[in-house]
Design a protein that fits this description.
The protein contains ten helices and six strands, in the order E-H-E-H-E-H-E-H-E-H-E-H-H-H-H-H. By secondary structure, the chain is an alpha/beta fold.
């Protein structure tokens, strides 16, 4: 398959198409009703394989993907979608296992949100992904980084630390605290657009793909 998804942010934020992927029909039905009430257009798939097959027909702006499903896991489906489409994936799961979080972001997930999160947080994660931003639930970030702190600092064979400006170090510290671009901007008295450019520079300098990996770097290097 070589489907190229609709570019992030191409549709108005009040007219986003979401593909909801979960193997529990009751959960899908309930969440779909709530998302539709928030102005989102929602289609469904029952597992990762069905999600991969559905993307071409459903042309979603964002995929909301469970992690653990039969036939094909959400992580494997995310890996395939990331490799073959431009559609951002947000993991929606009950799992706070740090291994699941890292596997998800390494597979290319744009966000990671818990199923018991408030509806406005789930909707915000969808809108952030559609707009090109990442979103990881603060509780997930805190749990992951606490585990890394307990495990110790960077192994001695890791490459030398990247050179960051004072502003970039401040932004990286707030990324590791689980703050989104708007919150970082408010704390540092800069615009969200300036934060977004700074985050892009940080990711490039650290040679990582996303905010979670940047936060992991910060903790291992003692920067957060």
């Amino acid at each position: 398959m070589s489907t190229r998804g609709r570019p992030s942010g191409a549709r108005p934020q009040d007219d986003l198409r979401v593909l909801l992927v979960d193997d529990h029909a009751f959960f899908r039905s309930g969440l779909r009703s709530m998302l539709v009430a928030e102005g989102l257009a929602v289609t469904e798939a029952a597992n990762g394989a069905a999600a991969v097959a559905s993307v071409a027909a459903a042309t979603p702006d964002v995929v909301l993907m469970d992690v653990h499903m039969p036939q094909m896991s959400g992580i494997e489906a995310t890996r395939l979608l990331t490799a073959t489409t431009a559609v951002p994936v947000v993991m929606l799961t009950v799992s706070t296992d740090d291994r699941d979080v890292l596997e998800a972001v390494r597979a290319g997930a744009r966000g990671y949100v818990l199923k018991d999160a408030p509806l406005d947080e789930i909707v915000a994660s969808v809108r952030a992904a559609a707009g090109g931003d990442g979103w990881v639930a603060p509780g997930v970030t805190r749990a992951l980084l606490a585990h890394l702190r307990d495990a110790g600092r960077a192994p001695p064979d890791e490459p030398p630390a990247a050179v960051l400006t004072d502003r970039e170090r401040d932004v990286l510290r707030l990324i590791a605290a689980g703050k989104d671009n708007a919150a970082i901007g408010r704390e540092l008295y800069i615009s969200a657009g300036t934060v977004r450019k700074c985050v892009s520079r940080i990711l490039a300098k650290l040679e990582v793909q996303n905010r979670v990996e940047a936060a992991v770097y910060a903790v291992r290097r003692g920067l957060a």
